[in-house]
Here is the input.
Amino acid sequence: MSVPYETAAYEPAESPESPEEHLARLLGRALNTFELPDETIERLDSALAHACSLYSAHHSSGLYRETHRHTWLLADGSAVTLWELSHNTGPEGLLQHEVYLDEEELRTATARLPLPSDDLDRPDDPDGPDFEMSVLLELSDFPEPRHEYEPDDSADHARRLLRRAENPDRPDTELAALLLDLAFAHEITQAFGRPCRPGGGRPGAYFSLYEHAFLLADGREISLWEVEHTATPDGHHVCEVYETEETAREAIERRAARLGGPTAFGW
Here is the structure.
């Protein structure tokens, strides 16, 4: 028998909500929003994307409760999670919603609900319920961002990075268009030590590897990998851009091998 989910369809499929709309609807139906810290609500003003997932559920004897995890990705690369408890154990069986900042508060509130035990086998009780079901779902966490992003004309940064790339196998036009349309913030980190000269190679040649991480307006994270080197016949500076760290490091290895230097840099 199917579980009678009365609250399963949180997100209207025909009109996806923005992070702001989703937050407003969650706070609008919760009875205890006044308990949430003002600081948390203010942080959520910068939300770029959100995810909602069923965390656990219990259905039995006409009573049920569900808990949902709502997570927002913020412009600074951090994430905020709110926990929602929905149940019909209150007066007249009316549906009620509560929202909590951490999982421990959620567990305390759930333990107070007057739900029956999870014993599903009651063959000796002719007056027992026709339907008993207990469900527990544990879902994976919303992925935590790896970077601390800065909103700073990131689409133009992506354009300039790709324009100076000289390698023929640089990222394709589809990825470039995606970054130009949706790049909202970015961070640059040096992934390979200091500029170094391969031993035995032409004096003055060096290699550097940088990760250009972009945060998109829809919450996705995309990285481009930039190789800077002077492993050229006349020693002039070259910029190459790759879609993955693996292909970037392989390119460095190839350039170093052509110079007669080592093919491993201890990374």
